[in-house]
Amino acid sequence: MHRILELYSGIGGMHCAWKESQLDGEVVLAVDINTVANEVYTHNFPETCLSNRNIQSFTSKEIEKLNVNTVLMSPPCQPFTRNGKYLDVNDPRTDSFTYLIQLLCELNNIEYILMENVKGFECSTVRNLFIDSLKACGFSYQEFLLCPTKVGVPNSRLRYYCIARRSVSEWHFKRKEDIITSLPCDYGLPNMLEEILQKEVPDKYLLNEKMLKRANVLDICYKHSRRSCCFTKSYTHYLDGTGSVYTNSNEDHVEKCYKVANTFDVGSEKFIELF
């Protein structure tokens, strides 16, 4: 049975994924310093012990006392994002993760690790430190760059994953020295959005006039769409490149609206009325 330490737990994405996997195990402790995320996590998983604490304050002895054998973690991605400054190991937001890397060989009870981050991490100094530590501590590992569309989810969100374990038993797939970019099984086409979205949506989620003024930059998805763009932290604050929007209208209707709207000044009252 997996006894799990969930680090950088956020709102509980890793916890949710673990439950979906139906693997045997429980999250013994979740850790995050973001108080807002912790409120959401507690709402999602009220039965799980959650610590609002800096990871660098944990000692190896404390972690051993938890009697955990599995670590799930999503360290801060900002130091490695393609649109950021890419400060890598020089970004202080990597400090807690590099601390864990240094601590890893002292954690003899840890048998399994799953780590997630953004594309860009795979060519970072921090990644090299992490992999070197895994090797030194006797872990075998495999790295991946995978998108949710590979497993039937209609959203483009390319991410780095690393799974590692101390077990000497055979893996259930052929490992490679290089990063794996496709799964051994085919999940077919992603679901259509209408198959997974709420049927009724409150009016508060409709686009307001301020957003409609920039309707020309919207990435619009429809009922039968099998894709959507990656959602970022700036979603709802900025429109261009922060994520898709959804409409119940069909594509022909939307196309006609745009055709007429663009005969008016962009952002004008008549332009907005058409949406």
TrEMBL record:
<dbReference type="InterPro" id="IPR001525">
    <property type="entry name" value="C5_MeTfrase"/>
</dbReference>
<dbReference type="Pfam" id="PF00145">
    <property type="entry name" value="DNA_methylase"/>
</dbReference>
<dbReference type="InterPro" id="IPR050750">
    <property type="entry name" value="C5-MTase"/>
</dbReference>
<comment type="similarity">
    <text>Belongs to the class I-like SAM-binding methyltransferase superfamily. C5-methyltransferase family.</text>
</comment>
<dbReference type="InterPro" id="IPR029063">
    <property type="entry name" value="SAM-dependent_MTases_sf"/>
</dbReference>
<keyword id="KW-0808">Transferase</keyword>
<feature type="active site">
    <location>
        <position position="77"/>
    </location>
</feature>
<keyword id="KW-0489">Methyltransferase</keyword>
<keyword id="KW-0949">S-adenosyl-L-methionine</keyword>
<dbReference type="GO" id="GO:0005634">
    <property type="term" value="C:nucleus"/>
</dbReference>
<dbReference type="GO" id="GO:0008168">
    <property type="term" value="F:methyltransferase activity"/>
</dbReference>
<protein>
    <submittedName>
        <fullName>Methyltransferase 2</fullName>
    </submittedName>
</protein>
<dbReference type="GO" id="GO:0032259">
    <property type="term" value="P:methylation"/>
</dbReference>
